[in-house]
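QA checklist item 7 of 12: single-chain prediction sanity check.
[x] sequence parsed
[x] length recorded as 185
[x] structure emitted
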Amino acid sequence: MEKVKKQIVEQLVSGTINRDESRNLLKMDPKDPERFWTYLDVLQDRVSWTDKILLRISDHLYVVKKEETGERLVKCDCGHELGDYRANWKTATNIRIRDTKEQIDKVYYPATAAPEPEWNEVREFFCPTCFAQLGVEVVPPGYPLIFEFLPDLDRYYSDFLGRPLDDEKDDWYENHTDKRTAQWL
């Protein structure tokens, strides 16, 4: 079985991989079972902190296991912690809401593709520390924040990767957003 070189995964993550190498990765049969672990190594090498990356959520966000406490948190590239991964990370960000035609037209082109401000608002989520844009959602005004991804890490690691996490528990896979927002009341 062919093993994917770390250098190729680095190019894939940085967006510098050439088309031929990209096709080769897609055509591998069977897939390299170590590819995920190589991917995590590459991600870990790209950040300045040492908390163990368990899963990448997006370009700037990761689910990590905190070294000191063992907590599973969402963390930004810059090291800012957005809290328990089981709670919607968007509640811990800076949010810009575009709700007028002028504001929306600044980010949508052509204007005919822009959402209608009478029916929608554009929410942009930013890291409070490095101000990287972490996400965008277009929703009706007043709509709750969308929590689009709550991974079952224990099942993924044990059933799909065959390497159970050392802190596996039954209560890890629960939505805790209500616990975070209840603190604000």
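[x] summary fact logged: Residues 88 and 139 are 16 Å apart (CA to CA).
[ ] second reviewer sign-off
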